[in-house]
């Protein structure tokens, strides 16, 4: 009877205990859901922009202004992890966030000394404090212990170690093992030796007091204390400890990488929330180009700047991106990214005018063309040296970058047609303010474009005339970007072959003569008033673009493409591999068809349409005032007429197309209301004529 009563009582107690445990577990789960670990600091990380091999190009501080890089156990030398656990938390792998044995040991030591001489914080408790900093108190300790248990409940040991490796303080604004290793030791943490590992284990104990760049002797003593402790734990041999103690500690902070700053800024802005952003940049080449840029800037006006872009033609990837010689130099307006800035290209667009001329059957590389004084309406372009050459071939005219021949060809191609071909290829051509349509001055820099777009166009000379957006972000698909045909493969090869015969700038010997690396197809350009100096070089594999000038647009007298930008371009090519792909040339020495043997002004059948056949807007004409509104204020129909030009004709009002007439040379238009409008007619060759009239 008594035995049965005892059994029933035991069962009731077990039931009550199990119920109590269940209640406690339920309460813990509820608290865990209500108060999850605060991970905001763990998410506030430095952004790293890397080169094509994963090496850092530039590292940014995080939102709090700290250098805090994410880290995992795999990012760190196993020796460091071994020393860290031996010194900080020997039972880390077995406790549940709080180490009872460490608590008892610390209490005994502190009572015996009458003061705090030892702590009992585990690595997990330290992570809790780093995630949620609080003033030191007993209450804070209890919260840290609870948070530590919560972290152990939610995460594995490797994850918790990763949190510590990311957040541990190392003095100043250095946080985490990766930033500390790079800024104090100049190496990634996976390469730490015993002395370096012991130093980085010691610093988080008192990061401000132990900063090696300010208190090297304190840092050394703290390092040696770690070495002695781990020796007691047999983590290092006495010989290894002695060798580590004999080494000095670093006495200065090292700067973090800051290459390709303009590109890095652009990619960080374009990828919010990304912690690591890969690029196509070749880190070694980027550093070489930056060094060249700094040296070249020293030879320029103190307010002048430069920009360089290097592209691999095979996949359009950007290998080097230099937006300025020094992004921090305010005198040279270094913060401005001159790779993307829109500037006048001078005569650097001429190769594409000739290329379209080849495709249209207007010219051949050996077509004879006259470089003589010529008027185009009220404009008479002259050459850079103010002289004229006379009769020569198109090939020679392009190699010598003569102005009149280029304008003659553009007149036949049509400036609107040329500008539209660039636009369809993705190049942004910006016309001067107040100019509605491109004109012949486009051939000589009468519109603006960026180095980025120009380099993409030149890359097409090695890509069978196909243009597609350049790639700078490493995660962009090599096949991404729609390709547009600017030139036929034949025309692109002809242009490139011609430019391979362009003479190098004075004092520069082409690298192929020294290294057998093949010719560079060279084209330079200089904008009006010596404001912009350009040089572009193309080989089968690489395209290099260079811009030099003052970002504020102030002229730089006597600085032009051939003597300022081209020498830097050849220095960049000297840093590229000798294998630059197959050359395009030489130009075949063949007699062009009879109709393409000569192009010069004065011979209407060769130089362009006869005057009678030139496109002319005959009604309305400029400055007319037209009474074209009815009594109700609505526009009355009127007939727009034109003569000449090759049909079909297109009609535009203020740049907006209103009609397309395949046969007729007139069209009916009804004005929308009163005001000043610009009427334009375009023919099939891209030529245009316009009139500005007032509607009343």
UniProtKB/TrEMBL annotation:
GO CC terms of this entry: outer membrane-bounded periplasmic space
Name of the gene this protein is made from: pbpC
Q: What is this protein called?
A: peptidoglycan glycosyltransferase
> Per UniProt, which keywords does this protein have?
Carboxypeptidase, Glycosyltransferase, Hydrolase, Multifunctional enzyme, Protease, Transferase
Domain (Penicillin-binding protein transpeptidase): residue spans on this chain: 307-531
Q: What is the similarity comment for this entry?
A: In the N-terminal section; belongs to the glycosyltransferase 51 family.
Question: In this protein, which residues make up the domain named Glycosyl transferase family?
Answer: 64-230
E.C. designation(s):
2.4.99.28
Q: What class of enzyme is it?
A: transferase
Molecular function GO labels:
carboxypeptidase activity; penicillin binding; peptidoglycan glycosyltransferase activity
Domain Penicillin-binding C-terminal as annotated: residue spans: 608-693
State the organism of origin.
Answer: Azospirillum ramasamyi
């Amino acid at each position: 009877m008594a035995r049965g009563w005892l059994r029933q009582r035991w069962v009731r107690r077990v039931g009550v205990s199990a119920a109590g445990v269940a209640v406690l577990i339920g309460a813990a789960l509820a608290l865990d859901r209500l108060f999850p670990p605060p991970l905001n600091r763990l998410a506030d990380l430095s952004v790293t922009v890397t080169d094509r091999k994963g090496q850092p190009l530039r590292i940014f501080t995080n939102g709090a202004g700290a250098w805090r890089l994410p880290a995992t156990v795999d990012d760190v030398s196993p020796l460091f992890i071994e020393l860290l656990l031996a010194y900080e938390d020997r039972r880390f792998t077995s406790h549940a966030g709080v180490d009872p044995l460490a608590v008892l040991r610390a209490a005994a030591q502190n009572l015996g000394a009458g003061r705090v001489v030892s702590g009992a914080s585990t690595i997990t408790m330290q992570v809790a404090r780093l995630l949620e900093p609080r003033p030191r108190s007993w209450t804070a300790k209890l919260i840290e212990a609870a948070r530590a248990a919560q972290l152990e409940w939610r995460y594995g040991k490797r994850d918790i170690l990763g949190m510590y490796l990311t957040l541990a303080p190392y003095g100043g604004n250095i946080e985490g093992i990766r930033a500390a290793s790079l800024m104090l030791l100049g190496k990634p943490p996976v390469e730490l030796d015993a002395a370096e590992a012991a130093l980085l284990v010691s610093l988080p104990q008192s990061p401000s007091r132990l900063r090696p760049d300010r208190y090297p002797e304190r840092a050394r003593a703290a390092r040696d204390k770690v070495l002695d402790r781990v020796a007691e734990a047999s983590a290092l041999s006495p010989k290894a400890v002695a060798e580590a103690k004999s080494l000095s500690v670093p006495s200065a902070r090292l700067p973090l990488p800051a290459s390709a700053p303009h590109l890095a800024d652009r990619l960080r802005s374009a990828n919010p929330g990304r912690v690591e952003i890969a690029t196509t940049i070749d880190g070694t080449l980027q550093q070489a180009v930056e060094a060249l840029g700094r040296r070249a800037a020293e030879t320029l006006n103190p307010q002048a700047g430069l920009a360089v872009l290097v592209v691999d033609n095979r996949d359009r990837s950007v290998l080097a991106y230099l937006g300025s010689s020094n992004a921090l130099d305010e005198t040279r307006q270094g913060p401005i990214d001159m790779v993307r800035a829109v500037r006048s290209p001078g005569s650097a667009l001429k190769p594409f005018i000739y290329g379209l001329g080849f495709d249209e059957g207007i010219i051949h590389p050996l077509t004879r063309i006259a470089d003589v004084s010529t008027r185009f309406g009220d404009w008479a372009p002259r050459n850079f040296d103010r002289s004229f050459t006379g009769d020569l071939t198109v090939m020679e005219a392009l190699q010598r970058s003569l102005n009149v021949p280029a304008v003659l060809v553009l007149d036949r191609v049509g400036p609107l047609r040329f500008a539209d071909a660039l636009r369809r290829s993705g190049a942004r051509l910006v016309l001067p303010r107040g100019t509605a349509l491109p004109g012949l001055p486009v051939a000589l820099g009468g519109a603006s474009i960026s180095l980025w777009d120009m380099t993409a166009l030149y890359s097409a000379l090695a890509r069978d005339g196909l243009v597609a957006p350049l790639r700078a972000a490493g995660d962009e698909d090599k096949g991404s970007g729609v390709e547009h045909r600017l030139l036929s493969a034949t025309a692109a090869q002809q242009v490139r072959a011609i430019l391979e015969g362009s003479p190098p700038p004075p004092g520069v010997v082409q690298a192929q003569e020294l290294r057998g690396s093949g010719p560079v197809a060279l084209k330079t350009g200089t904008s009006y008033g010596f404001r912009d100096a350009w040089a572009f070089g193309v080989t089968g594999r690489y395209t290099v673009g260079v811009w030099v000038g003052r970002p504020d647009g102030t002229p730089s007298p006597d600085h032009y493409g051939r003597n300022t930008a081209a020498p830097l371009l050849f220095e960049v090519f000297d840093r590229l591999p000798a294998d630059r792909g197959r050359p395009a040339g030489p130009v075949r020495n063949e007699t062009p068809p009879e109709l393409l043997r000569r192009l010069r002004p004065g011979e209407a059948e060769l130089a362009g349409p006869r005057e009678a056949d030139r496109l002319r807007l005959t009604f309305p004409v400029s400055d007319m005032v037209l009474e074209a509104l009815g009594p109700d204020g609505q526009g009355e129909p009127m007939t727009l007429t034109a003569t000449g030009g090759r049909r079909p004709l297109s009609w535009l009002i203020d740049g907006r197309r209103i009609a397309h007439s395949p046969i007729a040379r007139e069209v009916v238009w009804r004005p929308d209301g009163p005001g000043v409008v610009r009427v334009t007619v375009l023919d099939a060759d891209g030529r245009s004529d316009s009139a500005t009239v007032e509607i009343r």
